[in-house]
């Protein structure tokens, strides 16, 4: 019998070109939007004021885009980086091609774009992920590239890249 504890992937398990489909999805609630928006001091009326938002282009409150990105990336953690990431190094090419509204269900997938061993941190490598989030209609609502510092599984893997 084997007992498995680790949920994320080590550097040497991640293969550029591989795509991970993350489940379950996450339905966004009004409480999520209000809490995230107020915790981050974003007082944008499009997120908080239903009457104002109703008079605007989309006719309803928009979910805070940084909540959307955080959720899309968060959906990937159990599959990819739980217990194996040392640090996030940065985000790039962040896009929000469609809005998210209260009641939408977000799903995500992640493609491993690139990886390389760290030149300054033995036993660790830099992995570039592209996270893609969609709503329940299959519309892309968020894309983001993320560079993360990830642990190697073994010293042999660390030297072979």
Description of the structure:
The structure is a single chain. The chain is an alpha+beta fold and 161 residues long. It has one domain (11-160): Thiol Ester Dehydrase, Chain A (Roll). It has six helices and five strands. The longest helix is centred in the N-terminal third of the chain and has 10 residues, at 30-39. The two termini are 30 Å apart. This is Acyl dehydratase. Pfam families: MaoC_dehydratas (PF01575). It comes from Mycobacterium numidiamassiliense. Residues 16-127 form the MaoC-like domain.
In short:
Residues 16-127 form the MaoC-like domain. With 161 residues, the protein is an alpha+beta fold.
Key traits:
single chain; 161 residues; alpha+beta; Thiol Ester Dehydrase, Chain A; five-stranded antiparallel β-sheet; 6 helices; 24% helix; MCH/BMMD; HotDog_dom_sf; MaoC-like_dom
Summed up, the domain count is 1
Q: What is the CA-based Rg, rounded?
A: 18 Å
Note the beta-strand portion: 25-35%
Shape verdict: elongated
Quaternary structure classification: single chain
What is this structure's SSE topology?
Layout: E1 19-27, H1 30-39, H2 45-48, H3 50-54, H4 65-74, H5 77-80, E2 85-95, E3 105-117, E4 124-134, E5 140-151, H6 155-160
């Amino acid at each position: 019998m084997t007992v498995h504890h680790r949920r994320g992937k080590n550097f040497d398990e991640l293969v550029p070109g591989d795509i991970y489909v993350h489940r379950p999805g996450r339905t966004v609630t009004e409480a999520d939007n209000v809490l995230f928006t107020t915790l981050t001091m974003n007082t944008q009326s499009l997120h908080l004021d239903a009457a104002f938002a109703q008079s605007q282009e989309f006719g309803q409150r928009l979910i805070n885009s940084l909540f959307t990105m955080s959720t899309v990336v968060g959906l990937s953690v159990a599959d990819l980086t739980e217990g194996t990431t040392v640090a996030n190094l940065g985000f790039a090419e962040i896009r929000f091609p469609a809005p998210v509204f209260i009641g939408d269900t977000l799903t995500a997938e992640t493609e491993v774009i690139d990886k390389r061993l760290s030149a300054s941190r033995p036993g660790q490598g830099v992995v570039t992920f592209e996270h893609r989030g969609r709503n329940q209609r299959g519309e892309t609502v968020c894309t983001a590239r993320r560079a993360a510092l990830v642990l190697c599984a073994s010293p042999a893997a660390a030297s072979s890249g």
